[in-house]
Specification:
It is built from six helices and six strands. It is α+β, with helices and mostly antiparallel strands. It has a six-stranded mixed β-sheet with strand order 5-1-2-3-4-6. The chain is elongated and about 75 Å long.
Length: 216
């Protein structure tokens, strides 16, 4: 008795090449089926639109023979599946390296790697402050750079306080065995995103507006 599996990155737990096992199906037509799968890692469901290339339904055919796997099956064609993994992105106009590590922070959060997520948030703030202040001032310690940005009016008092919290908490993640909760890591990501928007996205929006020719 075979089983039908769906070998994709699970859209729920984001495990690469997660094995999802079929447990049910609904016929949409003689050849088209909606097949339901469960992820063996997180237990959450995924539905797939499947076309059978044989004269039986996907589950009936597989159960009567040997294991089969989508999307590389010779007997069934995977048309689509849902939900799809959410594609993470960074705020517009932020530096490429800061954007890269911010996306990685969000990816790690979804994979429940909360300590790594917090450390990456610190890296984003570190890179961002160096970009804003320039190479020379960027040689200062992060804590000093944060205070300098506030003194220059480039971040608010509240952002300065939160930036210090990110710096301190992420240092704890590096130098101790402190465990971060999902809520704490989510707060770090939230602040980091606001920092990027305030520091890069909004200034570019204002600049674009100022450079736009006035209409009569």
């Amino acid at each position: 008795m075979g089983i039908l599996t769906l070998d994709i990155t699970c859209p729920h737990c984001l495990r690469d090449k997660a094995v999802l096992t079929a447990f049910g199906q609904i016929a949409k037509s003689q050849e088209n089926y909606c097949v339901s799968f469960l992820c063996r890692s997180c237990g959450n469901p995924v539905s797939a639109n499947v076309v059978t290339l044989v004269e039986q339904s996907p589950l009936d055919y597989t159960r009567g023979r040997s294991d089969d796997s989508l999307p590389d099956s010779r007997h069934f064609l995977l048309i689509d599946y849902f939900p799809k993994p959410e594609i993470n992105s960074a705020p517009e106009s932020c530096p490429d390296r800061a954007a890269k590590f911010f996306v990685e922070a969000k990816d790690n959060f979804k994979r429940s790697n909360y300590e790594t997520s917090v450390m990456l948030c610190r890296k984003v703030i570190d890179i961002s402050t160096k970009v804003i202040l320039g190479d020379e001032l960027g040689k200062e310690q992060l804590s000093k750079r944060i205070s300098m940005l506030h003194a220059q009016g480039k971040i608010t008092e509240q952002m300065k306080d939160w930036a210090h919290i990110v710096r301190i908490d992420s240092n704890n993640a590096i130098h101790s065995d402190e465990v971060f909760t999902a809520h704490e890591a989510e707060e770090m990501i939230g602040f980091t995103e606001v920092f990027l928007i305030y520091s890069f996205t909004l200034p570019e929006m204002v600049k674009a507006k100022q450079e736009k020719p006035a209409t009569v």
